[in-house]
Amino acid sequence: MPALDLSPGYGLPALAASYLDRARVRELFKVRLDRSTKQRRLRFAGAFCLASQRGVNLGREFQVQFTGPYVAGESKFIIAVAMAGPTREFWEKRFAAGDTPWDRGEVSPQLGAWLAAGALKPCRILVPGCGSGYEVAALAAAGFEVTALDYAAEAIGRTRKQLKDAGVEATLVEADALAWRPQRAFDAVYEQTCLCALYPDHWRDYADQLRRWLAPGGRLYALFLQWLRPGAAEGAIEGPPYHCDINAMRALFPEPRWAWPKPPYPRTTHPRGLAELAVVLEHRA
């Protein structure tokens, strides 16, 4: 088994270094492994390259370095990834320090509006990036079968406390939203704080996950964050949370894969000066 030494480059943090079997690598990282002992062709996040046994450059954002020979036929190896955007450690520190400016401290008024209007009725629903869990507890109290998903243990802990205080139950999952696969599809997904927390390079993978999570005809109840910083005029990517431009959202969730309602869309303000556009999309098979 080769030793693997991370060579981050570009000032990007290390995301993970762990033993993974071939099938799991393909599933999680979209990596194709050839049988050659000296070279392998890899596909990682849409970037193609040829890799020698001494190392591989996976583009501007991914770089790994092998320090030993590759053993043909070995079923496991170590892979390390340098990845753009916030890491698990980043989110753990932010939650632990209470540095969560996107947290309004209560249930989103738009969720209340959807429930009051009957636009969102009890069903099997997923809340990715559940954060402090206000909406998870509210949905559970309204009779939904709720699954809450988050990357950070601190967020899962907060959600667990919300559920306990409300005297309700939900399924809690601590996992990477870009890798997690449920046993069966959901009727609905409540998307408020997951997409805007992900570095934009990962939005396409997340959109693919949403399609996997939702049953055909299922609905995505999305609150697209509106927080355009001055640096955007010069192409800067600033966040998290990241601005979710509505034109980018149309490209990310295109017709005919998703059915869009006609604008204008309800706009929910935030005490921190942010805003969200509320859009309900239907997943088409």
Main sheet overview: 8 strands, mixed
Stretches where pLDDT is under 50 for at least 5 consecutive residues are: 1-82
Number of helices: 7
Percentage of residues assigned to helices: 10-25%
Top-tier CATH class of the largest domain: Alpha Beta
Overall mean pLDDT = 77
Distance between the termini: 42 Å
Strands, total number: 15
**CATH second-level architecture of the largest domain:** 3-Layer(aba) Sandwich
CATH H level of the largest domain: which superfamily? Vaccinia Virus protein VP39
Secondary structure class reads alpha/beta
Quickly count the domains: 2
Strand portion, in percent?
25-35%
Oligomer: single chain
Order of helices and strands: EEHEEEEEHHEHEHEEHEHEEE
Give structural notes.
This protein has 285 residues and is an alpha/beta fold. The protein has 2 domains: 4-82, no CATH class; 88-283, Vaccinia Virus protein VP39 (Rossmann fold, 3-Layer(aba) Sandwich), CATH 3.40.50. Helix content is 24%, strand content 29%. It has 7 helices and 15 strands. It has helices at residues 22-29, 88-97, 109-117, 134-141, 153-166, 203-213, 246-252; strands spanning 4-6, 14-21, 39-44, 47-52, 56-57, 63-66, 76-82, 124-128, 145-150, 171-174, 186-191, 214-226, 258-259, 267-269, 275-283. Strands 8, 9, 10, 11, 12, 13, 14 and 15 form an 8-stranded mixed β-sheet that branches. Strand 9, helix 5 and strand 10 (171-174) form a beta-alpha-beta unit. Helix 4 (134-141) packs parallel to helix 5 (153-166). It is globular, with a radius of gyration of 20 Å. Mean pLDDT is 77; it is low at 1-82.
